[in-house]
Design goal:
Organism: Entomoneis paludosa
Low-confidence stretches: 64-68
Helix content: 55-70%
Protein name: Helicase-associated domain-containing protein
Order of helices and strands: HHHHHHH
Strand content: under 5%
Number of domains: 2
Structural class: mainly alpha
Number of helices: 7
InterPro entries: Helicase_assoc (IPR005114)
Mean pLDDT: 79
Pfam family, one: HA
Largest sheet: none
Length: 145
């Protein structure tokens, strides 16, 4: 149920390992991915047919390592950020728009997106290297930012 709720909000099942809103969900998802790997390696696992079918219904097994999906994922996050900033401005916060206030509000309202934005900022400034291709700031992505 919790994963379905996460999926309905974020439209994906990629729960961050450090998901502070629901750490037990993050742990559960990690365990499901481990069991999936064991199943694929034909080793003993705890998956039942019922659980497999339920997870398939919400696209739990989508591969995140293809270039097209990474671009779609990055673009989805970028659009989420644009929507957030537009809502923030529409709510009359135009005069109070400082980076710190926006980041604090984002952290409160969407910790998932906040973590993504922070990662992008760190990668852009050189504080962090992109460890996942999905986070890499291509020339096109840099221009969009």
């Amino acid at each position: 149920d919790e994963l379905c709720e996460f999926y309905s909000i974020h439209n994906h099942c990629k729960v961050p390992v450090d998901y502070t809103i629901n750490p037990s969900l993050a742990q559960w998802v990690m365990e499901q991915r481990k069991q999936c790997r064991l199943m694929n390696e034909r080793q003993p696992h705890t998956f039942t047919k019922k659980r497999l079918n339920l997870l398939r219904q919400i696209n739990f097994f989508v591969k995140w390592n293809s270039g097209e999906t990474q671009d779609e994922n990055w673009l989805q996050r970028y659009n989420e950020l644009k929507d957030f900033l537009e809502r923030d401005a529409a709510e009359g916060n135009e005069k109070k728009r400082t980076r710190a206030r926006i980041m604090n509000r984002l952290k409160t309202e969407n910790a998932d997106l906040h973590a993504w934005v922070q990662r992008q900022k760190d990668i852009y400034s050189g504080k962090r290297k992109a460890t996942r291709p999905a986070d890499a700031l291509t020339i096109k992505r840099r221009e969009m930012m």
